[in-house]
Known about the structure:
By secondary structure, the chain is mainly alpha-helical. The protein folds into 2 domains: 74 residues; 57 residues, no CATH class. It is built from 6 helices and no strands. Helix 5 crosses helix 6. The chain is flat, with a radius of gyration of 43 Å. The protein starts with 13 loop residues before the first helix and ends with a helix. It comes from Aphis craccivora (Cowpea aphid). This is Protein ANTAGONIST OF LIKE HETEROCHROMATIN PROTEIN 1-like.
Amino acid sequence: MTPVMPGKSQTVTDETLKSVVDSVNFMSSQFDGFNNQLKHLLSTINDLKCENKRITLENLLLKKETENLSGRLNKIEQKTVVSVRNCRPAATVIVLSCSKLLLKAKKQKKRRVRRWWMTSLTEVENDMLLGLRAEPTGKFQNFCRMSSEDFEFILTKIGPKISKQDTNMRKAISIQECLAVTL
Length: 183
């Protein structure tokens, strides 16, 4: 005979009881896993707190040491000033001028070396355009969508209007390149 739950009209079977027991066991294992994870997290937090305290103490010691070194450096600077005052005037002038030159040399910026791609690209474009015009393979016509003669004709008509002057900073882009890029 199967037991009947009070207040319910359904009967409880062995299968239902087994599924309830399985659910309880599953939840129990999940709870145990969660409990283990929680313990691990708490131990990690405690370890981090201890590490934080250690680092804080180390920072305080380093701060005191820095203050001590700063005080010693100030004393050395004062002694240097006093010793410079006691030197002969000619030696003082030499020391001060040398230090001024050193400071000036530090402040001057070093000229940056041009990178390889800044100079080589323009040379490659010039060579490529001349190479295409010299070849009878039709690559120039494919590149510019016109024959070499038509290109020259247009170049003679608009060349003076689009030409630029060279400057101290860089050479101007040639009219052939400007026209080829435009086309």
